[in-house]
Specification:
Blueprint: H1 11-22, H2 29-33, H3 41-51, E1 63-67, E2 70-73, E3 78-81, H4 84-87, H5 96-106, H6 121-132, E4 136-140, H7 143-162, E5 170-174, H8 183-187, H9 192-195, E6 205-208, H10 213-219, E7 224-229, H11 245-256, E8 259-263, E9 287-290, E10 302-306, H12 308-311, H13 327-342, H14 345-364, E11 370-376, E12 379-384, H15 391-400, E13 403-404, E14 406-408, E15 412-415, H16 423-437
Parallel strand pairs: 3-13, 5-6, 5-7, 7-8, 8-9
Antiparallel strand pairs: 1-2, 2-3, 4-10, 9-10, 11-12, 12-15, 14-15
Pyridoxal-5'-phosphate (PLP) binds near residues 142, 144, 180 and 265.
Amino acid sequence: MATRRRPSSSAGARSATATARSARPRRIQTLAQAPGPARSAAEAIELANRYGANNYKPLPVVIERGEGAWVWDMDGKRYLDMLAAYSALIHGHRHPRVVAALVEQAGRVTLTSRAYHVDVLGPFLRDLAEATGFAKSLLMNTGAEAVETAIKAARKWGHTVKGVPADRGEILVCEGNFHGRTTTIVGFSSEEKYREGFGPFTPGFRRIPYGDLDALRAAIGPETIAFLVEPIQGEAGVVIPPEGYLREARRLCTENRVLLVADEVQTGFGRTGKWFAWQHEDARPDILVVGKALGGGVYPVSAICADDPVMGIFRPGDHGSTFGGNPLAAAVGRAALLVLRDEKLVERSATEGAWFLGELRRALAGSPHVREVRGRGLFVGIEIRKESGTARAYAEKLMAAGLLTKDTHDQVLRFAPPLTISRKDLGWAVERVAGALA
Ligand SMILES: Cc1ncc(COP(=O)(O)O)c(C=O)c1O
């Protein structure tokens, strides 16, 4: 056993020792004294601010309970959840079948790592293959991890299959992209706030304007291995590319032996009224990246899905994750897919989304504050005119009226409610939005 070295007497070591002493954990007395959540909204916010990093700016509401499309704050006030965890809650809060699958699995086995086989993984992978139409999947946990996995797959494919010299493959990405928060991913973001101070970044990416086929055509070169794109840019403000963009991008990628990588972490599993947003233009990608809704609103589950020519590049030891594809994830993911199918949530997204968009457009037609109402399925953005202030102010107004949404990129209010939401609740939302914006 190694012997412990005495601290040196240098000034640096002295101050490090002092810091270590002050940060030494003390007995956690509050756990024993007051188990359970905070006792008031004020206490919840105060504790989160005092002990948490300052990396989010939540609306000042403290949610205590959720069911379906609704949540309740600590004072018992009810809100319609029209953000649904940035689209991860497609099934609504605590869908009974998803929760039952979670509980049942938790009563048997929760985690084994991929060092062993588990009984639930195979059936989940089979169902995922059926749902996505891709032969194989590689499971991870968060969306960003799945995007990282897609990048690794594309790079290795580029070198070993396409024959691009090692470490030279280039991936094209779009202005306004959002693919997560790892250092590699923020390195190719066009949003200065996401990048500032976090460099140096991973090379091998080139940004081109979103929705611009000429730019894509011009950017593709002999070392281009992949085009990574969101079929609709969610975080950028529900930005829908021009008609035909994805179809032609698909064609260009095929023509040039470039992998089309569709990031459907936000748009996947029915959000836009189709199982996947690429289906609106029949632009089947080579790699499909999914996450969020696959976890049924209770657990992080993400994946890349591809056919053998791409997935075949992985060998044991190449890539992995301790939690990726664990039994809880498999049980929950499978239940999430079955509920989507059985409750026809994709079809609901198409019909209810069309109705919601139409009603919003009608209600806001004369509004001096609204620049545009756009959307596809139950994925809607309302763009606020700059002269009318930021979207944040309207999100707060809506919160006071009992409707939760969130501003994105200063001017857009994003609506991505659970696909289980009733028409009555959607109508209720339209009235609240009209009250705040008309
Ligand atoms: C298109 C897209 N990709 C990736 C991510 C990252 O997912 P996660 O936050 O689970 O890492 C997001 C999150 O909003 C997203 O919208």
